[in-house]
Records
---
Amino acid sequence: MNYEFFIAKRLVLKQRRSGGFSRSILGIAVAGIAVGLAVMLVSVAIVTGFKNEISRKVIGFGAHISITNYDSNSSYETVPVSGEQTWLSSLREMDGVKSVDRYIVKAGIVKTDDYLQGVVFKGVDEEYNWSFFEEYLVDGKLLEINDTARTNGVLVSKSIADVLNLKVGDSFAAYFIQNPPRMRKFTVEGIYNTQLEEFDKMYIIADIKHLRKLNDWKDGQVSGFEVKIDDIDQLDEMERKVSKTCCSYNPDGEILKVTNIRQEYPGIFDWLSLLDMNVWIILGLMVAVTGFNMISGLLVLILERVNMIGILKSMGATNVSVRKVFLYFASYLTVKGLLWGNVIGILLCVLQYYFGIIHLDPASYYVSTVPINLDIVNILLLNAGSLVVIVVMMILPSFIVSKITPADSMRFE
């Protein structure tokens, strides 16, 4: 054990037993670090949780990556492609791909006895992955689609059901503006509620065979394919792999294009990206405040220990060694504050995660409670970054030790 660390440890023990002005100042510094880290932990957990939740809901209505006809535009009247592609099996077996689903979208108008509403019907087949809608199903059941007979059942959102005064088991008419105009009768099989109002007010999930018939498409033709991947952080890389696999000229003349979810909904994802700037501002402010708290505490401690500094120097201790003593002591206080900050921050996050104490307006925030994402990597990075930055900030004020001489310490006394 080096003697600087030994002396710092003795200072810690003495500080615990003693009272006085310096102990109060150091206690405030430790409390500042604890509060600062707790605020940083909660801020990062909320922002990452919010981004993950919104992204997951948007992707649930579509997919990470979409494959459509190159001639299709941004409307809901799409140009068909063959649902039986030579690359389909290879794409489903690709590392990082979770699922590949066929779909058809078509705009329509839903009419009941008293109300009408413009909607988008999304047709899915028997291989569709229902895990997303299963999570948000609030009434009824999911659709049972097979590869033979068409089912008239549909899945509607709670928003649409409330507007049209529909409940499970009710029937309604849907009108499709085309030449000639057509009408179909559907029955509500289930009601979902994702609280993502922009999408809940739009989508009705139906049997893909209905929409294929309405479009007068051939058997097997679809609007495109939805590719869900395991990790959204790998979105750009996976998009390149998917493009390399499927974007080519087909024998029937089709040309396919690949787009990712950020390109389809740039407004939502640009808005979510802006939240990162808020987090960085909060982190910077909190680290600055906690750092200056510790600088104040360190200066008070040095002034209180002028006599000790003079004695150490008179015994041959160098300025570097004396600075190390105080930096060790300040590092101990910093770690103590970080530990309490972890306890406070993680406890607040756990309470919000399991009990949803703080509520939000779903119409404005797309979630009913503040979402939390506790990631061990984020916690470790925040702790390590805070410790390093605060200790580095204390190096400069520790140089005041070099200005104190044994003679000064005697006059100070």
Note: The radius of gyration is 31 Å.
---
Amino acid sequence: MTFATPLILSGPLRSPRQMLADQEYGGHTSIHDDAMAEKLGFRAGPIEGPTHFSLFPPLLHRIFGQVWFERGCISAHYQNMVVEGEEVRAFAETPPQGATRTRVWAEKADGTPVLEASATIGPDHGPTLLEERLAGLRPPERLVILADLKVGMSGREEEKVRMDPDQHMGALYPFSLNQKLSVITETSPWYVDPAASPWGRAIIPLEMVSVLAEYSSAKARFPVKGPAVGLFADQEIRMIDGPLFVGEDYVIRRSIAALSESRRTESYWVRTQIFDQTGTRLKAEMLLNHATLKHSYAGYSEA
């Protein structure tokens, strides 16, 4: 006898750590600084959204196996901020055998939603959650902070990046991989021990793929007006020929995928492609919605 009852996998409650209190961009502190967050009307500096991505690999490895790390995609819409001291738990629907898509989400201990996402296996992912959200976007009526951006605009230069274990990841990410691994919510020997990894190399954790993709982003020199404060509102990380490895050289190219606005924000969606060191073999992609707070830009209402 079989049942159509949907079953849910869940992880334990975890307490993610805030590691961006000293983050700087555009010459000023970010929303992750408590004082800046309070100035903007938030109760404290939030933990960066992709930190919560680390909650999902144990569940998705159970569902999809090793291929999740090679061709998996998580496509997430962030719903509510988390501050240090709060607990978060990940959930995943168990799909039918052979399926390549499922729904995942995260909640605080009291049930407050943190993020919703699709998790898929490629190459044929079908429409991901963010692709569906992009398809529903209306053109912005008026942009001020992002007035000089255009869809399709490319970054000014290719960026050469790597992530070594003790490499400080710059002003945007004032820590190293090893410092992150000392507090990461879900540990794995695959992150540190080449002999334990199925690929014979230590792999970059899912949340740190976001760091690899973003820490050199200033080199793109997209003409965003400022100073203004932003946050991640939507984010998709897609492995095409993964995983990505610690100590490996990569080439990054960026482009503007979409522009949008809400009552409180102007958003630019950046597609970041991560190639091998020759720049010819696409390894992974990230789609990121940078939501810039209108009221953080001086004189916005008069512009």
Note: The radius of gyration is 19 Å.
---
Amino acid sequence: MSTGWVAVGVRSTAMRRRRLGPEAIRALAARPSLAAALAELGTGPYAHDVRPDQTLAEAQRAVVATFVWNVRVLAGWAPRDGVVMLRALTAPVEALNIDEHLQRGREPVPPAPYQLGALATAWPRLAATAGVPALRSVLAQSSWDDPGSDDPHDVSVAIRLSAAGRILVDVPKARTWASAAAALVLARELAYRAAPPRTRVRFLASRVLGPAAGGALSLQELAGALPPAARWALADVSAPEQLWRAEAGWWARVDREAAAMADRDAAGAGALVGTVARLAVDAWRVRAALELAARGGHVAEDFGAVA
């Protein structure tokens, strides 16, 4: 094993301590106000970006920004093939930047994009575009691929399916997670959109999930057409209102499997992938906890599905 991977293993072990963890997240969610939650959060592993005077939206963005910063630190220690994996694993964050770029002009003060640095796929070029056709042209010339439509919603769905496909290729240890994530993206399209998914969306879904799933016309049809690697994502879903629990279940399974992966492969790709996954899960849970604290800290029973 190269010295680069050994260094990644050591750094990954240290980085996993930069999580709040389920018990602390539940306590955060029970705080009586957002201000109280931020006062606590700003002294822990999210202090890099969280500030006590932030709004809920700003604080939730700051949590993701801290996650991105931690992954960039890991990238500084990783060998070249590790950086390729990290670039694919952070593609969903670049997708958030793209979504917000599509909305620019509609918000008085748009948020600053997440700073991906060397982990960006095409963001500097995408950020310079004005209008969907120009953005789509840049996407088509990058590993994001052509979303096949100028409709912002279709672009958003297409890039998420594209991100899953990239993880499938570049991060073998995360293939099951990527397939299941793509299944959830397509499930939401089938459950909540009046029109069937566009041809390009179906094509991108087919590359990850196979032609049968990509051609599904209903939630039930999709659940029965998924490949074994992704079938668990919709195992308990029979109606659209159950999708949020399926998504929470996806995060919970990723966390369990990532913990085991990091333990098994303490100085290799497993340590890197497992660490990034656990940091991402923690950030997702913290964002949910902040929203509950902002509502007065009344932790609902359903919060158990999140943390």
Note: The chain has one domain: 3-305.
---
Amino acid sequence: MPVDTRPEREEEELTGQMSFLDHLEELRRRIIHSLIAVAVALGVCWTFADTLFRVVAVPIRKTGVEMIVTSPTQAFNLELKLALLAAIFLAAPFILGQVWLFISPGLYKHERRYALPFIVSSSLLFAVGGMFGYFVAFPFALQFLIQWAVGMGLVPRISASEYFDLFIMVELGLAIIFEIPALIFVLARIGLVSGPFLLRNTRYAVLIAFVVAAIITPTTDIPNMMMMAVPMVALYMLGVVVAYVFGKKRTKEPGD
């Protein structure tokens, strides 16, 4: 006896035709789930707050510059910020899964099988972006800024709060920037972008990269802006290669 698949098909069609209010409700649900995941991860990371402080303080201690606090609550607040940063990295796979669940209703059924490659690759790239920030970008920016102050005859004594705020901004900025290849992979696989299209628009991508770098860079100097812009451009070009290798024309397969 043939199985009636009409209710399932109707549900799939309705899933791809959500109203604006439905999209808002779905977005609210995904944001709440992500916040809960971050809160749980924060509880875990808070137990390692002292260790996180010592690890993040390594770059400035290598310069010999003294950090100071200017209020009784500043030390507690900065450890809380560090625990929150670590919680975001720890919960990143779940958060990226929520991102996928938010966009998946607008995809064909056969396109939804890219969920695992997207979540795995984007999670790895998020972590790599953080490591690049910690081992390369942030120490370079810090050394540059301290040498600039010393060259002016100033004696650096840096506020611990400002130091850690700078660190957090660089880490999160680069972690997000490193998501570019994973995003392009998914867009290319479902046929929304292609290698030739991305290559033709490289000049606009470079312009956008430098504009974004100018906005998120903590200082106005060219070297630190390049610290953000160059990885963006390099990752975009990597994305172009990814689109050439994995891209295809978007099609609606039977059963979608």
Note: The CA atoms of residues 13 and 256 lie 8 Å apart.
